[in-house]
Structure formats: structure tokens, C-alpha cells
Model the fold of this input.
Amino acid sequence: MELGGRSEAPWPCQAEQTRTILYFGLFGCRHVYDGDVLYSLSLSFSLRVLSWTDATFSGSALCPTCDLGRFDLPGLRMLGLGLRVLNLHGNEFIGKLDGSLLLSGNSSLEFVDLGMNSLSLQLNLFCKFKNLINLDLSNSDLSLTDGVNCSFSWPKLSSLALSSCNISEFPGFLRSQHTLEALDLSNNRIQGKVPSGLKDVGKNSLPLLNISHNNLTGGLELFSWKNLLYIDLRCNSLQGFLPSPPPNTGMFLASNNKFHGEISSSFCNLKMLGILDLSYNRLSGKMLILSFDDDNANFLIVV
Done:
């Protein structure tokens, strides 16, 4: 079942019709009366996908700027026993998220997206979901608690988005994430040197790395990720010689840092490169002549 657009109609389902819902989606709906929604969903024991994105609610439990601490679905823990997708992206939810909403008895969750809300939560609330493939907590006030040195891991995790989460350290659990394909830690307060252990994160699988807009210092070792396609290092205070990206890199963004010295000639071998931004650094020497296939070259900035 899916509702979209600026729907202000009453909830269309009778109670007996909700018991076998597998998929429930609200996309961009306005002024949905949440009392009917919550009651109907509490009767469904077969739900696999719950997706409410860019929706606003009215009624007693939710509101256009909703305190998620007041969010109450008595049947959610029962219906959630088979839930695999929980997507609450961009609903202007606020408040502190506790474990009761996170389906404490659930072991089937594979996709969790709580991004683009204004939630306060602890990372260890998610450690019990061993089947997670995607976790997006962007734009949250995230507490790592034991997340810096914790031993938990998600053996299947391929995408992790912790952008704008107000964190100040690299999460320690990253060392055990060997299957990541996308890692976004941008727009945080992470300080100091990039830890050497980061090179082992998704070593044979990671194509996207975004650590831009932090307070990172020091130099970077050569990139050890063989499959990196997108690298974003912008707006830090990284120093030393500019590291050479892997040969299949398509986008390399390293502007607004303190890299110095000459640009390595290895950049001439990046045949898939479409976007290169090295502006606002302290680079010197001759500008390299880089040749690209017309289909790949979008624009080139080298300063």
C-alpha cells in the first residue's frame, strides 16, 4: 500500500484489511491523521516495509514537528518481528529515540533510514540488528557512547551515513566493517589525524568515501582501497603531499586543505576521472596535462 502527494483524505483501510499488509508507504503526504494510521498498523502482523518519507502528520501522537519521544505504536514490536525496512527519512521528527521504537525483539531489519530528522539517539541502540545492510542516521545528534571502542559490528553492512551527526571521533567499530560500499562521515567535528586503521574499512569493497567538512589534520597515506570511485576530502586541514587516488577514480575532491608540493604524475593515468578539484591548497610545480575521454570529463579544477 502506498500513498503519495498532498493527500488530506482519511485513512482508507478498514481494520480487517490491514492484517496482511506487507508494504506501507507515505511519500510527501500532508496532514495525515496519524490516529488512524497508528491504529491500522498496530493490527498488521505481516508488515515487511514501513516507509514514511517527507510526510507531516496531525492528531494526538504526531504533529508537523513531531516529538518522536511521544511516538507510540503498541503493536509495533509485534508487527516488527518480520520488518526488514524502516524508513522515516525527512519527516521533521524531533526528540530522543529510545530502544522501544527500534523493535527490541527484531532481528530481521536490513534497512534503517532515520536521516534528515532532528533526533537524539545513541549508536549502540542499533548494535543488535546483525542483518543491517544500510544505516542512515544523518542530521542527528548522535552519541557514540561505547561506539568509539566498542566491539560490535554489522557483518553485512554496505552503506553507512553519519553525516551531520555532531560526532568528534572516528567510530571504533569501523575497523570491523569489511563489506562497506559507502561511508559518509561528512559535516561533523572529527578532529586530529586520520587513523591508520581506516584503510582497512571496506578495503576490497569501498567505492565511496566522504570525510569532508571536518577538522582533520596531518597527512594521508596512499589510498589502499582498490575500488574507490568517489573521494571527498574537502574543507579539512589535511597536510603533506597530495595522495594519489586509485586508478579507477571518477571524482576526487580535495579543495580547501593544506596539501603542498607537486601533483604526482600518476594523476595522468586516471582515465575514468570526471571531476578533479584541488583548489585552495598549497600545491606548486608545473600543471600537469591530463587527458580524458570526452565521455568522462565533466570539468577540471586544478589550483
Summary: The helical segments are 34-42, 76-79. The chain has a mean pLDDT of 77. The chain has one domain: 2-234. Residues 2-234 form a domain with the Leucine-rich repeat, LRR (right-handed beta-alpha superhelix) fold (CATH 3.80.10.10).
